[in-house]
Design a protein that fits this description.
The complex is a heterodimer of chains A (564) and B (189). Chain A is of the alpha/beta class and 564 residues long. Chain A has three domains: 170 residues, Rossmann fold; 156 residues, Rossmann fold (3-Layer(aba) Sandwich); 172 residues, Rossmann fold (3-Layer(aba) Sandwich), CATH 3.40.50.970. Chain A is 37% helix and 17% strand. Chain A contains 24 helices and 20 strands. In chain A, strand 19, helix 24 and strand 20 form a beta-alpha-beta unit. The longest helix of chain A is centred in the middle third of the chain and has 16 residues. Chain A starts with a strand and ends in a 24-residue tail after the last strand. With 189 residues, chain B is an alpha+beta fold. Chain B folds into two domains: 76 residues, Alpha-Beta Plaits (2-Layer Sandwich), CATH 3.30.70; 71 residues, 2-Layer Sandwich (Alpha-Beta Plaits). Helices cover 37% and strands 37% of the residues of chain B. Chain B contains six helices and nine strands. The longest helix of chain B is centred in the C-terminal third of the chain and has 18 residues. The chains are: A alpha/beta (564), B alpha+beta (189).
């Protein structure tokens, strides 16, 4: 027996059917029928009112990253929808499962330049995994089921549902729908055992194998399969930013971070290994540097679930298509249990060189203003290296990724591909809902914080326990660093005149403290972590400090600068 | 991997579900990679529910491969492949609207139409409509000739249509494999 309900009510039931428990959103004219239906579902669908629609999508991203579930955002048409565009593009390039529901004018008004009408499907198609306009109440159940299936399966990504107002108000015989098969879309390709055997042979014949770990390992929940594979074949690895918590920071085979601001050893050894095994990563230009000289000596094997990533940036010798949870398990059976002791030892001199020239100075400065690295490491350790690291974008992000330590999976929330300033604060809010039992530490600069600072209102209303570590250097630090290095110190519009952040926090009822002296740092961090709920810890950071080491843009990846 | 690095005209055959909005998604893949589409034809295919896009563009083999995989990545695209001319049976159609008074004055116009195996499909005292099918060069050869005779009022040439010379029907194989997967996913529940 079915009953007639509105399309808006059908949307609520369809979301519940998909297991949604949190929605981040902001109401408006064209989504009002849906918000009216939501009023009756407040007990099951916890709606978090953000202060700007960009905050809703980034919060949904933060929620999805730490929980592995699909993040959900709901906004109105026109400006509400266009304000989500940055977050949709961010989720697309970082493979974050998300469903964005946008209100839309009724179909009779479509194309008339109606009030708050925008071609949402046209705008979002190129930056989303799937974008669909729901024009009839009858299509709600099917469209929502399909949206969630597409968002979470295969290589995850954002899906947009453009929900016309007449579809919200129209009546429908509702029946829950489930979609787990689409003829034109194969999210779980079968593992090709011939490729696995060929890959195993290449690895078994290798004397200097090196693994690149990407976020695909986390998305595929293959962290344990990765560890077993690495340990059996005794292969060292480096990780991308998004792959940081796929393997514990202190694992003996984890050699550090890849790419422009990564660690010296893994970058140098990328150009010395004989077999390079990339797992769930996409050879971003920030990871590879100059492609013409990237790992030219090596045979390259690429494991990925997305066939469009194969040979896109780096030509490879062998591709292994599939969920790495399956492909890693399969190859582990075929690789020899062996030791690559000498090869692994070869990373040590580079690690020591980087420690002496960069890391020691960043973590243990004797004098002068606070440095980002020491703050990050102290926060990480004070949270037993079990916290979730959320970052904004810029120096705060690079330093957080370099010096935060990870012991738990799914602990990285950062805008990797799009580099979205303003991502951090709302994403951290989402993370507190996605992982309510964990400590969420946000590292943010004085530039990025002000891009979405209105979300302090959401934190206030929800009491969201975001530990905000504001690394304030009164500069747009990363651009300033590039100006120093590549634009002859011409600091074009990078100095920041800042407000009194403690007063702002006070206005929102958020406890806050500023640390200037190194001697006060430990106690301030302890107080922040001991204070229930949100906290803003402002650290007065050395103004013109640089993130090192660095591979200059376009340079060879093994030619890292250790000093400027 | 050995790849042809010369730029040449590739033909992309793309099959998709019949849903609105896919054409712009497909053309956007070419635009984003700065590849100009030379011709485009879209129609229903012989497979029920599946649409066929025939796109030609100049690029090298690596780019053709990237374009194909990026197109296939779109959710409703069933399959995308790229071909060189020697792998295809190719045809195009063109229509000419010619001035009848000029034709009557200059018998070479009619001679050239017949020489190119073109067909007259309409005649009145103002204009004559001529139809020709063939490959691009045949059609452009007639066009260039008629242009010198100053008789062309209008000219239009269709996008390329083609079928593959291969004895394997990739789309049928793909759809059959998908149906097996659909059945096994139903069975496992």
């Amino acid at each position: 027996m079915t009953e007639k309900i509105t399309g808006a009510e059908a949307m609520m039931r369809a979301l519940e059917h998909e297991g949604v428990d949190v929605l981040f959103g902001y109401p408006g004219g064209s989504i009002m029928p849906t918000y009216d239906a939501l009023y009756d579902h407040k007990k099951t669908l916890n709606h978090i009112l953000v202060r700007h629609e960009q905050g809703a999508v980034h919060a949904a991203q933060g929620y999805a990253r730490v929980s592995g579930k699909v993040g959900c955002a709901i906004v109105t048409s026109g400006p509400g929808a266009t304000n989500t565009v940055t977050g949709i593009a961010d989720a697309m390039i970082d493979s974050t499962p998300m469903v964005v529901i946008c209100g839309q004018v009724g179909v009779a008004m479509l194309g008339t330049d109606a009030f708050q009408e925008v071609d949402v499907v046209g705008v979002t198609s190129p930056i989303s995994k799937w974008s669909y306009q729901i024009r009839r109440a009858e299509d709600v159940a099917w469209a929502v089921a399909r949206a969630f299936f597409i968002a979470k399966s295969g290589r995850p990504g954002p899906v947009v549902l453009d929900f016309a107002k007449n579809a919200q108000t129209g009546m429908v015989d509702y029946e829950p729908a489930t979609v787990d098969f689409i003829r034109s879309y194969d999210p779980e390709p079968d593992v090709n055992m011939t490729d696995i055997e060929r890959a195993a042979k290449m690895i078994n014949n290798s004397v200097k194998p090196f693994v690149l770990v990407g976020q695909g390992v986390e998305l595929g929940e293959a962290q344990e399969e990765l560890r077993v594979f690495l340990e059996k074949a005794d292969i060292p690895c480096g990780t991308t930013f998004l792959g940081l918590s796929a393997i514990p920071s202190d694992h003996r085979l984890n050699m550090g971070i890849l790419g422009m601001h990564g660690n010296l050893g893994p970058n140098v050894m990328t150009n010395q290994c004989d077999v390079l095994i990339a797992i769930g990563m996409r050879f971003d230009d920030r990871v590879t540097g100059n492609l013409a000289t990237y790992a030219k000596q090596a045979k390259i094997i690429h494991f990925d679930i997305d066939p469009a990533e194969f040979n896109k940036n780096v030509p490879v010798h062998l591709t292994v298509l599939g969920n790495c949870k399956d492909t890693l398990a399969a190859i582990t059976k075929l690789v020899d249990e062996t030791k690559h002791t000498a090869w692994i030892e070869g990373f040590k001199p580079y690690a020591e060189k980087e420690y002496n020239k960069v890391i020691d100075k960043a973590l243990h400065p004797k004098e002068g203003p606070l440095l980002m690295g020491e703050v990050v490491r102290k926060v990480s350790e004070a949270a037993n290296n079990e916290g979730i690291m959320v970052t904004d974008v810029g120096q705060n992000q690079l330093m957080a990724c370099r010096y935060f330590k990870f012991t738990k999976h799914r602990s990285v929330v950062t805008s990797g591909g799009l580099g979205t300033m303003g991502y951090g604060l709302p994403a951290a809010i989402g993370a507190t809902f996605g992982a309510p039992d964990r400590t969420v530490c946000l590292f943010v600069g004085d530039g990025g914080l002000q891009m979405t600072i209105q979300e302090l209102g959401t934190i206030m209303e929800q009491g969201a326990p975001v530990k905000i570590i504001l690394l304030n250097n009164n500069f747009l630090g990363n651009v300033r660093q590039w100006q120093e290095m590549f634009f002859a110190h011409r600091y074009s519009f990078t100095p920041m005149v800042n407000p009194n952040y403690e007063l702002i926090a006070q206005g929102y009822g958020i406890p806050a403290k500023t640390v200037i002296e190194r001697g006060d740092l430990d106690a301030a961090i302890a107080e922040m972590l001991a204070t229930p709920g949100p906290y803003l810890l402002q650290c007065a950071i050395k103004e013109e400090d640089n993130v090192l080491p660095m591979t200059p843009p376009g340079a060879n990846i093994d030619e890292m600068l250790l000093e400027v | 991997m050995e790849q042809d690095t010369t730029t040449k005209l590739y033909t992309f055959l793309i099959y998709s579900e019949n849903v609105p909005g896919l054409l712009s998604q497909i053309t956007a893949v070419f635009t984003r990679r700065q590849v100009n589409i030379e011709s485009l034809n879209v129609c229903a295919s012989s497979t029920p529910g599946a649409h066929k896009y025939t796109v030609t563009a100049n690029c090298d083999e690596r780019m053709a491969r990237i374009l194909t995989s990026q197109i296939e990545k779109r959710i409703e695209v069933l399959q995308a492949h790229f071909y060189t001319d020697d792998q295809l049976f190719i045809n195009e159609t063109a229509l000419f609207k010619l001035s009848t008074p000029v034709m009557l004055k200059n018998p070479d116009v009619g001679r050239m139409v017949r020489f190119h195996n073109a067909r007259i499909i309409e005649v009145n005292n103002t204009y004559t409509v001529v139809e020709i099918t063939g490959i691009t060069n045949d059609i452009l050869s007639l066009f260039d000739t008629l242009k010198t005779m100053d008789c062309v009022l209008q000219f239009v040439r269709s996008g390329r249509i083609c079928i593959t010379k291969s004895r394997v029907e990739h789309l049928d194989e793909y759809l059959a494999a998908r149906e097996v997967k659909r059945a096994s996913s139903c069975k496992s529940k």
